[in-house]
């Protein structure tokens, strides 16, 4: 609507026909259609510059990557171990576990050292 008024005003001032005005206006007018490849490349460039997602209906980790990291929040959730705070503190569960392992070692029933289990002995026999 505004363009028509501007052209009508231009025609009155210049005293020329509408078709001549349109021909003169072409360098200043925006192109009506662009080729598909140009449009795609423009979208890719826009996406790269502004960090936008090109909607191609494929899954991407974009949403997840935009979220804030929560590592510190998770780490601060668990309290610091008491053994680090007070080295003189004795953890009874850990002591009980060590005592049981000592008993099993004396009887020869303790688990084997790393790399000396059932699978490793089978491989050596072949």
UniProtKB/TrEMBL annotation:
Keyword Ribonucleoprotein: yes
A GO cellular-component term linked to this record: ribonucleoprotein complex
Keywords: Mitochondrion, Ribonucleoprotein, Ribosomal protein
Cellular compartment(s): Mitochondrion
Primary localisation category: mitochondrion
Coiled-coil regions, chain positions: none
Superkingdom: Eukaryota
Pfam hit, one: MRP-S33
Region (Disordered): 100-126
Family that this chain belongs to: Belongs to the mitochondrion-specific ribosomal protein mS33 family.
UniProt-listed PANTHER family: MITOCHONDRIAL RIBOSOMAL PROTEIN S33 (PTHR13362), SMALL RIBOSOMAL SUBUNIT PROTEIN MS33 (PTHR13362:SF2)
Name of the protein in its database record: Small ribosomal subunit protein mS33
């Amino acid at each position: 609507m505004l363009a028509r008024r501007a052209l009508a005003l231009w025609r009155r001032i210049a005293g020329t026909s509408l078709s001549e005005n349109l021909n003169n206006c072409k360098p200043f007018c925006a192109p009506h259609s662009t080729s598909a490849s140009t449009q795609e490349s423009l979208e890719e460039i826009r996406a790269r510059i502004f960090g936008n997602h090109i909607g191609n209906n494929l899954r991407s980790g974009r949403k997840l990557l935009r979220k804030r990291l929560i590592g510190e929040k998770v780490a601060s959730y668990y309290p610091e171990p008491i053994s680090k705070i007070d080295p003189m503190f004795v953890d009874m569960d850990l002591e009980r576990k060590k005592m049981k392992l000592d008993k099993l070692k004396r009887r020869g029933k303790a688990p084997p050292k790393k790399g000396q289990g059932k699978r490793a002995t089978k491989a050596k026999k072949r």
